[in-house]
Amino acid sequence: MTTTQQPQPSAASTGPTSTEHADETRSSPGLTKEDLIRRWYQMVLARKIGERWFVLNRQGKAPFVITGQGHEATQVGTVAALSAGKDWVVPYYRDLGVALALGMTPDELMLNVFAKADDPNSGGRQMPAHWSHKRLRMVSGSSVVGTQLPIAAGLAWAAKLQGHDAVAVTYLGEGSTNQGEFHEGLNFAAVQRLPLVVVVENNGYAITEIQAKEMAIADVADRAQAYGVRGAVVDGNDLIEVHRAMQIAVQAARRGHGPTLLEAKTYRIVPHSSDDDDRRYRTREELDLWRARDPIDRLRKHLLEARILTSEQADELIAKAAEELRGAEAFAAAAPDPDPASLATHLYADSTTPSTSSIP
Ligand SMILES: Cc1ncc(C[n+]2csc(CCOP(=O)(O)OP(=O)(O)O)c2C)c(N)n1
Ligand SMILES: [Mg+2]
Does 147 contact ligand 1 (Cβ within 6 A)? Predict the structure, then answer.
């Protein structure tokens, strides 16, 4: 791989400069100091859970894992602009941070990776990271990338028809924006001016393929123009920037101004999944370049410089996250497996004889 093919750090054309990151007054409307601390803690916890999932895989306790280390600012920052439990969320496999920030507990996340009976995502039936949570209005997508777009557009359409104030948000990678469903879903949402926000987590890779091999454009957000919706590019490793852009998109959707295609430039600092060896397609130097732009370190630096947190308090929060994870793992490891007798539950209709009584 040549240097020119490597993904460039942050959104070069639109991303903030490093000087701006040192600005103590940086904030986003609607994010208090307490919110910033809480969201930073969620980023730390999401990172630790993702790291732990990989260890559990290597220990043979989780046959497959897929996580989002590096994407935390995009995932937590977008959720921070949502109304949890009211807005509809259709995530994709990378979105551990979305699930956590929305309200899925560490216990529930660990039940998920161990495929336990009480896993709220699927009762242990789906692969890990195929998110679903009824109370949180998080709707299960499919492993088939891009298919979440029409589902999210449908949810936004239903909310609009029913006169609800809810928006629908869906997440996908940049590679998945080449799928037909992305275009069909976005076009329909644009025509109907649906309350939809499409968040593209652009990490520069679709498994082994770099963006230049996925599409002939630099910014996925340029595709918005073709459908007549707003497009925005944001530095996906900066929680404050992400939140600000997401808040604008969510408000536009709630006010009836239709969809936004929000592209967050970020990077996954782990392999695609536990089945992938990323040393075969990207250099360690490239990884180091992005580790130096770690979204968690970046927000920590801001919190310290703005005197919102001391480094001792930051360390205490990191220790608290480790403790919370340990407790969740112990709880989930001891939880019951699904009853084999329930194997077909939720897979087939309870009755195979269609009732005609309700057909007018
Ligand atoms: C329709 C379809 N084609 C191929 C795959 C295999 N696949 C799973 S993830 C993935 C890469 C998707 O890349 P991107 O959308 O950029 O998301 P990322 O994993 O980088 O976050 C592919 C090709 C799939 N699941 N569905
Ligand atoms: Mg990608």
Answer: no
**pLDDT at residue number 103:** 98
The total domain count for the chain is 1
Element (H, E) at 264: strand 260-265
Q: Is 70 in the pocket of ligand 1 (CB under 6 A)?
A: no
- Residue at 4 is within a domain: no
Ligand 1 in contact with 82 (CB < 6 A)?
no
The DSSP H or E segment spanning 279 is none
Cβ of 330 less than 6 Å from ligand 1: no
149 lines ligand 1 (CB under 6 A): no
> By alpha-carbon position, which residue is closest to atom 20 of ligand 1?
206
Q: Are 236 and 98 in contact (CB under 8 A)?
A: no
Determine the atom of ligand 1 nearest the C-alpha atom of 66: 19
Instruction: Please state, for a pLDDT cut of 70, what percent of the chain lies above it.
Output: 90
pTM score over 0.90: yes
Least-confidence region, from 13-27, 144-158, 233-247: 13-27
The predicted pLDDT at position 115 comes to 97
Express each pLDDT in 255-266 by its tens digit: 999 999 999 999
Give mean pLDDT, residues 271-293: 97
| Residues in CB range of 276: below 8 A, 6 or more apart | 207, 208
Given the CA of residue 92, which atom of ligand 1 is nearest to it? Answer: 21
For ligand 2, the distance from its centroid to the CA atom of residue 203, given in whole angstroms, is 5
Q: What is the pLDDT of residue 176?
A: 98
Residue 8, domain member (yes or no): no
Identify the H or E element spanning 202. strand 196-202
Residues with CB under 5 A from ligand 2 (ion): 173-175, 203, 205
CATH number for the domain including 94?
A: 3.40.50.970
Indicate the pLDDT class of residue 346, thresholds 50, 70 and 90: confident
Residue 170: enclosing H or E segment and its boundaries? strand 168-173
Instruction: Please report the atom of ligand 1 found closest to the CA of residue 144.
Output: 26
Query: What residues make up the domain containing 119?
Result: 19-342
In this structure, what token pair is assigned to residue 159? 């909310």
Question: Is 162 inside any structural domain?
Answer: yes
Does residue 243 lie within any of the structural domains?
Answer: yes
Phi/psi for 235 (5° steps) reads: -70, 105
Residue 15 has pLDDT above 60, yes or no: no
Index of the ligand 1 atom closest to the CA of residue 205: 20
